[in-house]
Amino acid sequence: MELNIYQPGSLVQVISYSPFRGLNGTIQAVHTIADDLEEPFCFYQIMLEGTPFKEPIWFEQDEVELVTSPLVALEA
To answer: Residue 72: inside a domain, yes or no?
Structure first.
């Protein structure tokens, strides 16, 4: 399984079962824990949109996913 490490500035959505589920935010910082025997594990510091929180919140890599715009089908 290939691990994609999201970059600071990327727009993500929280997908974990938490009070933040479904919220979008922007990655402020990335912290990676690397081990020679395992794939790296990432934590993302995310500034959430639409919340009263003034500080970014840390999420594990499996709690967020990139927000991508839907593909638009063009008819020829």
So the answer is: no
The owner of tokens 């927000």 is: 67
How many residues are there in the chain? 76
- What CATH number is attached to the domain comprising 60? 2.30.30
Find residue 57's DSSP bridge partners.
46
d(CA 9, CA 63): 17
The whole-model pTM stands at 0.81
Is residue 24 packed enough to be buried (19+ CB in 10 Å), middle (13-18) or exposed (0-12)? middle
Phi-psi bin for 50: left (phi > 0), alpha (psi -120 to 50), beta?
Answer: left
Looking at the structure of the chain, the number of domains it has is 1
> Cα(30)–Cα(51) distance, rounded to whole angstroms?
21
Q: pLDDT tens for residues 34-51?
A: 877 678 889 999 999 989
